[in-house]
Structures are given as structure tokens and as C-alpha cells.
Design brief:
With about 325 residues, the chain is an all-alpha fold. The chain has a two-stranded parallel sheet. The chain starts with 19 loop residues before the first helix and ends in a 14-residue tail after the last helix.
Length: about 325
Amino acid sequence: MLKSARKTEKDKDPEGRMPLAEHLRELRNRLVRSLLAIVVTTVIAAMFYKDIIQFFTDPILQAVGCEYSFAELADEVVKDTSQTSCARIVQNGLLSPFTLALTVSLSSGVVLAAPVWLYQLWAFIAPGLHRSEKKYGLGFVAAGFPLFLAGSYFAYWSLPKMASVMLEFSIIGSDNQLPLDDLLNLIMRMIVVFGLSFELPLLLVMLNFGGVLSGKKMAGWWRGMILGITLFAAIATPSTDPISMLALAGPIWVLYFCACGIALTNDKRRARVEALKPDDDEASELDLTPEDVGEIETVSASRALPAQAEPERERINGYDDAT
């Protein structure tokens, strides 16, 4: 059993301090819990790795004119693939199937175990944060996860259209072979890029709350931001129709203007708070009203010096001796 590094309420430091050894012990415990969660989810994902691959490849196969799924092609349900009008997904090398299964299982395990290791990371950092920092941190995490999922969904939706456009450049009569590992790497990169692009408004809001960027400056960038987002959408979705490009650029535009609105509102709130504070060269108001100190307790104390403890002598001309 892993020894907990957290102290009980009886032994807890009121200022939240911990020795270095206990910090390292707690870090070890949380890393072990995170790794155990990843191992468990990886084993579960390994049992269904073909279904996971099929989930990502089926829309692309259908988009390039193939009515058969990857599982049917892999299991040789379709005996004569030369009669089909679809691109062929292939795997090269003897170790390629095993390496691909291991990669898909591990990647899926890390994603599925994200709630566990993200909580362990937050639980390790949270004790060192102030209450306001915890509130903002939880708010940004709660907003960032749905935004990343939304971006991932748009990537999954646009990939089939992108595949159909790319394969239109093939020479007539040629056989299109799509290496499965390269295809999955492209899908993962697209999901990550689209997911992170949806985090841009959240990053702007974080900079505003941190006092680095003002809402007025963010709103002044609207022309350049719209142009940059449009160019990014055109490059990320290289299809001939403008619908795919607008489907990606439109939500980011909306999120950007929402971020500007939140930043402007936060600036107004911050200005109201600053207006209630005194100027730098102005003294703070002090309440000098005397308060009752309560009953005064008399304390008897002996004289500190031995000479003072002796009985007083008769003083002559202000001196206690005849000299």
C-alpha cells in the first residue's frame, strides 16, 4: 500500500506547508495512480482496438467511394478488391499490425484515463493555490475540455471531405493505397490541431484575467483575427466547397467575439474595484475611534534587579548613602 503524504486534520500545518520528503512522496503516489489508470484503460482499449480504428477510418473509406469497412477489408470478406472503386488501406511490414495495435491502444488509454490523471495533477497543485486561483483554474479547465471536444468533432467531420478532395488528384487508373499508420497519424494530428484552435479564445480570456491583455486591445484585433482564422480554416480544410471552411472558421469567430465580450466585462469590473481604492499618494482612511479594552487585570511582578529588591534607604540630598 502507498503511504499517504497528506496529514490528518490534527497534524495538518495551518499554513499548508509540507516538508520536501512529503511532497516527493505525494508526487510518487499520484504518478503511480495515474499510471495504473492508464494501464487499465490501455488493456481495455486493446480489446477493442479494431473497433477504434474502424471508427476513424469508415467515414474516410465511404468518402473515397468504398462501401466496405476496414474490418471487412482486413478480414478479406471482400475477395476481389480490385473490382471496388475505393482506395485501399494497407499495412506494410511484419511488425506493423502489432505496432499499430499497441499505438492505438496506448493512445486510447491515455485519452480515456484523462479524468483520472488530470484530477491527480489538480489535487497535487491545488493546495498551493489561493481560493481565487482555484476558482479560476477550475473554471478554465471546465471550459477548456468541452472546447477541445468541439474542435475534435469538427476535425472528425471534415476529414472525409478532405480525403475525397486529396484523392481527386490521383492519376486515372492508378491504385490508391493508404498506409494505415500514416492515415491514423494524420487523423490524430488533425484532431489535436482543431482541438487546440478552439482553445484560442480561452487563452485570450486567461491573459485578460491575468492582467496581461486588455479587452479593448483584443477587440481592436478583430480584422486581423478574422483574416488569420479564415486562412487557418482554409489550410486545415483543403476542400473545394466553402461550407467546410466556414464550418470551422465560423465557431472560432463566435468564440473570439465571446472572449472579447468577457474581457471587456472583466475590465469594467476591475475598473470599478480600482476606483474604490485610494490613490497611490493618498492616505488610507483609518478608524481612530477608541475601543473598550475590557477589564484590566492587575499583574504583580517582583523587581528585576537585586538592588531594587532591598528595602528603600533613607535618601540624603537625593542620594541613598552619606557620600
